[in-house]
Amino acid sequence: MAPISHIAQESYGVHESFIIDVFFFTNVCFCFVEVYVVARFGLRFAVCLGSVLMMVGCFIKAGVPGDMSTRIWEIVLGTIFVGAAQPFFQITPPLLVARWFGSKERTAASGVCINANQIGIGFAFVLGPLTVKDKEDIEEYFFWIAMLAAVLCFGTCLQFRSFPPEPPVPASQDTTKSEAQTPMDLFNESHAMWSAPGFAMTVAAFCVSFTNTNVISSFLNALMHPAGYTNNEIGFTGALFQVAIMVGSILLGTLVDETRMYKTATVWLLSATTVVLVLCTYLDFAMIGIAAVAALIMLLGIVDGPLMPISSEAAVEVTYPANENIIMALQMVTGNLVSFCLLPVFHQGTEMARDRQQAFWLLILITVICGVVFLKRFDGKFARARVEGFDFDSFSAREGTKGLYGAVASTLCIEPSQELDDVPPSAF
Predict the structure, then answer these.
(1) What is the pLDDT of residue 52?
(2) CA angle, corner 68, sides to 67 and 72, nearest 5?
(3) Alpha-helix residue ranges (DSSP H) falling in 352-416
(4) Nearest 10 degrees: CA dihedral of 73, 76, 77, 78?
(5) Which residues are CB-neighbours of 354 under 8 A, at least 6 positions away?
(6) Across all residues in the chain, what is the average pLDDT?
(7) Distances from the Cα of 181 to the Cαs of 36, 39, 65, 318, 411, in angstroms?
(8) Stronger pLDDT, 106 or 237, i.e. the higher one
(9) Three-state SS sequence of 101-159
(10) C-alpha angle with apex 89: 59 to 63, nearest 5 degrees?
(11) What distance in Å separates the CA atoms of residue 207 and residue 200, rounded to the nearest whole number?
(12) Which of 150, 226, 351, 420 has the most CB within a 10 Å radius?
């Protein structure tokens, strides 16, 4: 509802921040449900269940045709169903990718799966302002979203499979190990992951990217409207932001798949995100024009978006052969909790133009802190790379990248061997 938030607020008398809080609270609760459902019933059942919940939530939000009087509770209830559905799509990608993709495809594939949500948001940013001009248009807008959800639900239930005919690489054979675990087993494994070297740092990087993305997506309208931009301009800028997230994730994910430079990529992306956030803080959106604003927001998407798939795959590496689904659940729960706490703060900052800098400085602060701590404290060893026989030295010599990587690593105080040292078998 972010692209049409002002119309929705006039129609239902409820502020977008309340709907966002309902969504994130439900999302966090069902992250734990998703972990149990996947362990008990399998990946296919979980994804199909999520598609059904999404369809039901969309139809509830569509409401009774012609009746706008009861829509407040319908919007809230529909949001609860949609929030419950999303973990079944956003947590499962690392498990899906580990089963279906090879070692040189995983980070890029994770970027596509994790950030596919952003493409949906991008369509909403374009179609919302174009089709919704007043409160009477919202009913039809929600109806067509519900019909699309029904088509996707049918296709998912008909076509989705948990496993490929054959695992792409030997490491992916281990992804069947956690299907029959009890809730206590899942809790114990989750608890053990936090003690794995480097895991907490990957969660922190994921949270930074997740929070930055949510803040910009949720409050882009509040940031650009006071500067005099139209709904269509805001909508297309939001769509470009979502597309940039996907493009950046694919391009940088492919590079990381080839080099396994998770730490180097994370530190550089956190640094670049900080620079772009500083520009967003101090540049006057009203003065620089729509083209410059759109380019700035796109740049933020390119450098911030890839942090999510890169950090999720790094987490799988440092905890291998742990359950990929639990890893993503922990990252998603933490990211949602951080967003849940910070979004109201950012909302208060955007209520008055003079507080916009203070709100952005909150994002800058957590990004800088995460970057510095990640640089100095990350000590994870990439066990999955060892199992798959990845040899950084021979790769560097073959591809001619050793000198470049050495220079980057030296600049960032990173030892090239640190990321791929020989490691003992994981305790998980």
Answers:
(1) 94
(2) 125
(3) 356-377, 383-387, 392-399, 402-411
(4) 120
(5) none
(6) 76
(7) 8, 6, 45, 21, 44
(8) 237
(9) CCCCCHHHHHHHHHCHHHHHHHHHHHHHHHHCCCHHHHHHHHHHHHHHHHHHHHHHHHH
(10) 10
(11) 11
(12) 420
- The span from the first CA to the last CA of the chain, in angstroms, equals 41
- The b/e string for 131-159 (b: 16+ C-beta within 10 A; e otherwise) is ebeeeeebbebbbebbeebbeebeebeee
List the one residue out of 235, 62, 74, 236 whose CA is nearest residue 149.
62
Six token digits for residue 215: 């803040």
User: What single letter denotes the amino acid at residue 88?
Assistant: F
The rounded distance, in Å, linking the Cα atoms of 81 and 96 is 23
The residues near 403 (Cβ < 8 Å, ≥ 6 apart) are: none
Q: Token pair for residue 250?
A: 């694919």
- Burial category of 406 from C-beta neighbours within 10 Å (exposed 0-12, middle 13-18, buried 19 and up): middle
CA atoms in the 13 A half-sphere facing the CB of 2: 29
Between CA 295 and CA 292 the distance in angstroms is 5
Structure tokens at 84: 């419950």
Residue 379: the pLDDT is: 79
Report which of residues 390 and 83 the model is more confident about.
Answer: 83
Specify the amino acid at residue 366.
I
| DSSP track, 215-233 | HHHHHHHHHHGGGT--HHH
- Output the six-digit token pair for 45: 């059942």
Tokens representing 265 are: 């990529």
